[in-house]
Amino acid sequence: MKTIVIRFPLTANDFQKVVRILQAGGLVAVPTETVYGLAANALDPKALQKIFEVKGRPQDNPLIVHVGDRWAVRKLVSEIPESAKLLMKKYWPGPLTIVFKKSPKIPDSVSAGLPTIAIRMPRHSLIRRLSQAAGFPLAAPSANVSGRPSSTTPEDILEDLGGKIDCVIDAGGSYYGIESTVIDVSGKIPILLRPGNISIEQLRATLGKVRIARGDSLRPKSPGMKYRHYAPKAKLIVIEGRKENITKKIQSMLNRGRGKKIGVLTVQHPRAYRHDCVKFIGATNNLIARYLFRALREMDRKGIELILAEGIPEKRSGHAIMNRLRKAAGYNVIKV
Predict the structure, then answer these.
(1) pTM to 2 decimals?
(2) pLDDT grade, residue 216 (50/70/90)?
(3) What are phi and psi of 139, to 5 degrees?
(4) Together in a domain, 318 and 190
(5) Is residue 222 in a domain?
(6) Which residues span the domain enclosing 310?
(7) Which of 82, 110, 114, 319 is deepest in the core (most CB within 10 A)?
(8) What is the secondary structure of 142-170 as a DSSP string?
(9) How many structural domains comprise the chain?
């Protein structure tokens, strides 16, 4: 299969071409404000199976369904609780996925056999317009091989899925760079399943009580809960603690590891380390999130064997960043 690449913004002809691919059961990598998604008809079991096959995704890992407007939610769920209405009003369109009790019409492959469905209305207008024009919601997990860092550029997608999917829409780099926040409102008390750009503090300010889920569920309700995710090919170690202690520990590990291909991910000035492969990924949480997955993939392209990453404070979106780093490292963490 040849994967075609179409530049954003799309011409009218290109837009219709993409709609036809989706209506024929094809797979299209589409930009969203979080990361690129691998879109297919969320109501077509054959199209959904293609997603699992090309990504190498476990069948018990549910998919997130993307809708073009709020009205589309009513056809997909059995009820919309008041907590969901508050969240939809405040954060949609945007980087928030809400888990509802699903309608019986929803294919089990979307929900991994669970009685719930995860739904998002993205801020990026293209995927909303495609859903509306195609006439169905779009399942769209991250456009990468399962377990690898999520794709935030078209180059990432082609590296993982080139020749396996029908089309990539090239809209440059993703704005947020990490996946959406996921909150489950299907029970009595809302539960944060996956942290993201919308923080637990914001959710509690909107809803009041919100619990944080444990990540070891045997049947995950959200992507990113059960399996090792976001992982580079290189071994990754996260060093957490006070900034000065982190710097000393990483420099010590660099000194002991001479002869190995080691890379450092820093939120400080690159000259904080006496080393030739130091990647500055940003001094603010917004920039760190935007460039984290790009930096992990860049290290792999350089043939780095070991990545040492600085931890950051878990305030607001720092919670989501540390969630991604720890999972990418397989919880290989050193506290100093």
Answers:
(1) 0.95
(2) low
(3) -75, 130
(4) no
(5) no
(6) 235-335
(7) 110
(8) BSS-TTSPPP-SHHHHHHHHTTTSSEEEE
(9) 2
